[in-house]
Amino acid sequence: MGLNSTPSSERIHIAFFGKRNAGKSSLVNAVTGQNISVVSEIKGTTTDPVYKSMELLPAGPVMIIDTPGFDDSGYLGEMRIKKAEQVLRKTDIAVLVVSSEEGLSEEDRALRSLLENKKIPYITVFSKSDLTGTPITELNTENEIQVSSSTGHNITELKNMIAALADRDKNERKILGDIISPSDIAVLVVPVDEAAPKGRLILPQQMIIREILDKKAVPVITQPETFSQVISYLIQKPRIVITDSQAFGEISAKTPEDIPLTSFSILMANYKGVLQQAVSGLKAIDNLKDGDRILISEGCTHHRQCGDIGTVKLPALIKKYTGVSPEFTFTSGTEFPENIRDFSLIIHCGACMLNEREVRARAGQALNADIPFTNYGTAISYMNGIIRRTLGIFPDILDIL
Fold first, then answer.
1. Amino acid 100: pLDDT
2. Which of 203, 232, 251, 366 is the most exposed place for a label (fewest CB within 10 A)?
3. Can you tell me the distance from the alpha carbon of 81 to that of 70, in angstroms, rounded to the nearest whole number?
4. Which of 301-305, 317-321, 390-394 has the lowest mean pLDDT?
């Protein structure tokens, strides 16, 4: 995918961290060749993370993130630090910016340890080399470099170091993997109702259609109302039927048993690396009691419609299936509670708008707190009694049930 066609969730996220006035914003501008961040001598100029999707050669399509200083103070400073800490969840590559004049501080060392604990590849950049007059000689050449944003010294070398880490971090996995072969037919069921975006398809649908075309296979797109008619038209049996999760019950009844069936949400959970945990968390649905708290979290932000799947349809299905009345909490976008220990279950969307690292961070947070974690597609499939069928394309996962 090129610059304009690469979704934010599929870009390498490169975040710049460091103390206030370490030169983060100046370095971001120098690396990108754009005035992305406001630069000032006043400490704490960057108050919120600044995001910029761009093509960073030779790395390719990336998301650049400039963050507030990790040493900020006061109530507002604490809020800014929390914002910076949230960025760590989605950071694929970190650039730790240290002033050459001051050298590594306790805060820098603590941040570096945090990056290592989270297994985030990073580069330590000693900025403002033009102000010291003396180059730092004892550098770890593999992941440390001294630069000057004002003179451009070593900026190209830094970009090459970032590109090398980006190349190592690139995810070459596919959503469908080897499920689809050339000339196969894949039938995609895409409801067009009041909850569907006007004039466009949602991201998982776009990505899967493109992947099918790249495989030289044939995507056939239909709505639930015309699904049976489309199936009857096809001379060649479809290799797979992929449906929106909310239509699982209807489409399962209409799909011949010898045709594999799954959903966009299940495929995305596998693609993001959390399907196994999502399936493991399903049994918690059967143990829900009145008053249990359930967190339903979406990775995107959109206007809630009257038939919204996350806030309306999924809670209604849970109540109908379990016969109990849990309490529901809803979050969206970058919101995800720091304290999740009061929840009996977390149900996450397919997370197409979040990068893999952030999805895994949320799932890992649930795992560490011993809170069952699942996702929309697996939960809806389970409560419709068709989970074994919808996971048939992932035989290794079936053993968990």
1. 84
2. 232
3. 6
4. 301-305
What's the confidence (pLDDT) of residue 304? 53
Which distant-in-sequence residues (6+ apart) come within 8 Å of 324 by Cβ?
Answer: 288, 289, 290, 292
Q: In what order do the strands lie in the sheet with 50-56?
A: 50-56, 60-66, 12-18, 93-99, 122-127, 144-146
Q: Around Cβ 295, how many Cβ atoms within 10 Å?
A: 21
Q: How far is CA 150 from CA 23, 94, 99, 160, 395, in A?
A: 10, 21, 13, 19, 56
Query: What average pLDDT does range 339-354 have in this prediction?
Result: 93
Task: Pick the more confident residue, 144 or 70.
Answer: 144
Query: 67 and 115 in contact (C-beta within 8 Å)?
Result: no
Give bridge partners of residue 13 from the DSSP assignment. Answer: 63
Q: How far is CA 297 from CA 314, 336, 341, in A?
A: 11, 7, 15
Query: What is the pLDDT confidence band of residue 73, given thresholds at 50, 70 and 90?
Result: low
Is the pTM value of this prediction over 0.85?
Answer: no
> SS3 sequence, the chain?
CCCCCCCHHHCEEEEEEECCCCCHHHHHHHHHCCCCCCCCCCCCCCCCCEEEEEEECCCEEEEEEECCCCCCCHHHHHHHHHHHHHHHCCCCEEEEEEECCCCCCHHHHHHHHHHHHCCCCEEEEEECHHHHCCCCCCCCCCCEEECCCCCCCCHHHHHHHHHHHHHHHCCCCCCCCCCCCCCCEEEEECCCCCCCCCCCCCHHHHHHHHHHHHCCCEEEEECHHHHHHHHHHCCCCCCEEEECHHHHHHHHHHCCCCCCEEEHHHHHHHHCCCHHHHHHHHHHHHHCCCCCEEEEECCCCCCCCCCCHHHHHHHHHHHHHHCCCCEEEEECCCCCCCCCCCCCEEEECCCCCCCHHHHHHHHHHHHHCCCCEEEHHHHHHHHCCCHHHHCCCCHHHHCCC
Residue 369: alpha-carbon gap to chain centroid: 20
Dihedral sign for Cα 194, 197, 300, 274, please: positive
Provide the residue type at 275 as one letter: L
